[in-house]
Structure prediction request, 242 residues.
Amino acid sequence: MKSEYDDERFFEEYAKMSRSQEGLSAAGEWHQLKPLFPSLQGKTVLDLGCGYGWHCTFAAKQEAAQVLGIDLSQKMIEEAKKRNPEKQIEYRICGIEEYEYPEHMWDCVVSNLALHYIENIEKIFQNVYRTLKPGGVFIFNIEHPVFTAGVGQDWIYTEAGTPQYWPVDQYFIPGERKTRFLGCDVVKQHHTLTQILMGLLNNGFELEVVEEAKPAEEMMRIPGMKDELRRPMMLLVKANKK
Prediction:
């Protein structure tokens, strides 16, 4: 499979983002995502779509015993090895759909902003449930269905260029969405809220937390950020294996 993140132009633009340069402290969702993690001391952690490896390093600094970060992008894995090389972390070039998901292997599985690239998300839920140990935790952040169902995933603007409203169309029709991200053509997958939440419940998980990401108070002081309160952009979920 091809990863947009291996496109040279796309990768260069991604590298300019605050979250790429500064890590988790610059990720708008981190203030909500971080509290969802259980104690990772002595635990095994799998990161699906690890990118630069920021969450892998977080797990390592929390004294996780073993951490595996997988990503389809060779460029991302190369960057992760340079930026986040802690000794207990292994990085592997591997798609989320292609990973073998050995049974009862991991205490915690995390995925940040990667599952909206997956067509059959329920299959991933099944695989994650199998690979978690009893009592294991699945924490993920996915683009909100209202965001992925947006027309072109962008605002409708006034003639003056001011965001007027956020359009939603064909919400109940899941599947491929072609959009522009960082100046490049990107293919994502739209999943309804029912698909996401019932997909977890139907495959044995217990939902502990479901949150819609909002910018932290300090980020709201940045010019233009107040528009982010007019639409949900990310959905954070913590699910437990029974």
